[in-house]
Amino acid sequence: xxxxxxxxxxxxxxxxxxxxxxxxxxxxxxxxxxxxxxxxxxxxxxxxxxxxxxxxxxxxxxxxxxxxxxxxxxxxxxxxxxxxxxxxxxxxxxxxxxxxxxxxxxxxxxxxxxxxxxxxxxxxxxxxxxxxxxx
Amino acid sequence: xxxxxxxxxxxxxxxxxxxxxxxxxxxxxxxxxxxxxxxxxxxxxxxxxxxxxxxxxxxxxxxxxxxxxxxxxxxxxxxxxxxxxxxxxxxxxxxxxxxxxxxxxxxxxxxxxxxxxxxxxxxxxxxxxxxxxxxxxxxxxxxxxxxxxxxxxxxxxxxxxxxxxxxxxxxxxxxxxxxxxxxxxxxxxxxxxxxxxxxxxxxxxxxxxxxxxxxxxxxxxxxxxxxxxxxxxxxxxxxxxxxxxxxxxxxxxxxxxxxxxxxxxxxxxxxxxxxxxxxxxxxxxxxxxxxxxxxxxxxxxxxxxxxxxxxxxxxxxxxxxxxxxxxxxxxxxxxxxxxxxxxxxxxxxxxxxxxxxxxxxxxxxxxxxxxxxxxxxxxxxxxxxxxxxxxxxxxxxxxxxxx
Lengths: 135, 403
Fold this sequence. Notes:
- The complex is a heterodimer.
- Chain A has helices at residues 20-27, 54-67, 122-125, and strands at 2-10, 30-39, 43-52, 70-73, 78-80, 100-103, 108-111, 131-133.
- Chain A is of the alpha+beta class.
- In chain A, strands 2-3-1-4 form a four-stranded antiparallel β-sheet. A two-stranded antiparallel ribbon of chain A has the order 5-8.
- The model of chain A has no long low-confidence stretch (mean pLDDT 90).
- Chain B is an alpha+beta fold.
- Helices cover 15% and strands 30% of the residues of chain B.
- At the A-B interface, loops of A face strand 2, strand 18, strand 23 and helix 7 of B.
């Protein structure tokens, strides 16, 4: 089994077509939509997690690419500016998947990209503008 | 035998001073004879790095040709209004000042992405800022407007002057209401969804000298990455609060007013800071050396997070409405564990003051002393302590009668 967190960028002509349901039905993937923003006739942007057999995940991604959907790993869109972070820990209690976490011994904050769901809850909470999420 | 500051400085000069940070001393001295350790250890360094709103800086930028008198006029650094109620080219920049056209909280919650604190950070980083001013013109100061780039090196004086810093302990903020609130203690989730605290606890300067036995007027300190001095007690200094048997206050108590040459400081230790829905502030790094003159002072510096208690305060109603009372008491060991229990509810915690950076401040100050670059001072005057009778008064409002 494989799990992948990705961002889909839909071109305008695909916005009104069913795409995700195909992934579920034809490729036997478990799809968890983490975030979605769709503006009719313009574009769609989706953050999702796909789980399935390695081959199925690959086949699903190929199918999506052939349709004309741009696909990229989620981590690219999330930035933790370590120089601006003061390790104050203001973000720690707000981050649902604990992507932002603190080593309780040293009190050093770390950011684990692969856990981030791009919920943006950390953005207004960080007093040092250390988090940036391009969504 | 008790030591003197002069004896400690002599050891610093010879490179023989024994220095520990306020964190290191806890384990080092545990279980040892106090008398022996107090003889052996010369200095304990405390540190903090947290948002401190009552901060600012004053400047003298030199005279223009022809001369301009900013006093009575208007002046800005990067569109941040300055206080110019002085002579010709002196002004004060407050950390929380913001551009006049900032929307504030009109679109709630405001972002407050720029303000006086950011100008201070940019200046100490050596960056150019825009100085713009208008004046009314006099015979001796005829010029009426000014627009120029300026940077720190070209100024005559640039002095950080913070009237209230290094709070001795602070509240733990929660939100009892059913909506998200945006405060200077951060974003607080409804129904006690989180709790925010703001102190370096066992590393915090005034918590390591709870009765102000060594820190006083003139104490040389680490300030913003450079050297600074304690001016005296800060505003709202309130030594008479409830304390533990060891003298550690259980709520916000003492404060320090501090000053230092901005030109020696670093953007790493003076950071522009934005609290969503609240405003701009300056995060300041302060380190204080505590001379181990005797066993009593050593014992104070051995204070541990679990011995420092803070009050849990509701910031949705009790704080804004000045309703006294606490929802409970927690210690910094609990706060730093990430979870506290308040009235039977488990609440996740977050800090606003960086313990990691506080440790770094204390370590840097320790290194300065060990390297013989930083010497200790005898206070010129002590700051008011528990026996001072100081009462922290609210404003007594007396309505102005309309004639």
